[in-house]
UniProtKB/TrEMBL annotation:
Belongs to the FlgM family. It comes from Halothermothrix orenii (strain H 168 / OCM 544 / DSM 9562). Keywords: Bacterial flagellum biogenesis, Repressor, Transcription, Transcription regulation. Coiled coil: none annotated. This is Negative regulator of flagellin synthesis. InterPro entries: Anti-sigma-28_factor_FlgM_sf, FlgM, FlgM_C. Signal peptide: none annotated. Residues 32-85 form the Anti-sigma-28 factor FlgM C-terminal domain. GO terms for biological process: bacterial-type flagellum organization; negative regulation of DNA-templated transcription. It comes from the Bacteria.
Length: 88
């Protein structure tokens, strides 16, 4: 197959147009970016700090369950009465 000058120019022009389209798409893709606000960053930092804190409540619940199962859990009568009358 022989390619004459006119066909070569058309091929070159198509190549240049295609390259422009690809470059345009790449430029558009590079424009997208995400910015996290200072508040978002602070929330993330706080979540990380909270994750490092041991779950004290869970340990307390497990301890109370164990005491109840073993029959060692005792609450003073005065404390029960105080809690019952607290919201009256």
């Amino acid at each position: 197959m022989r390619v004459n000058e006119t066909q070569g120019q058309k091929i070159s022009q198509l190549y240049i147009e295609k390259k422009k389209e690809v470059n345009k798409k790449n430029k558009m893709a590079r424009k997208d970016k995400i910015t996290i606000s200072n508040k978002g960053i602070k929330v993330s930092e706080i979540k990380q700090e909270l994750a490092r804190i041991p779950d004290v409540r869970k340990r307390k619940i497990e301890s109370l369950k164990r005491q109840i199962q073993e029959g060692n859990y005792r609450v003073p009568a005065r404390e029960i009465a105080r809690k019952l009358t607290e919201n009256i």
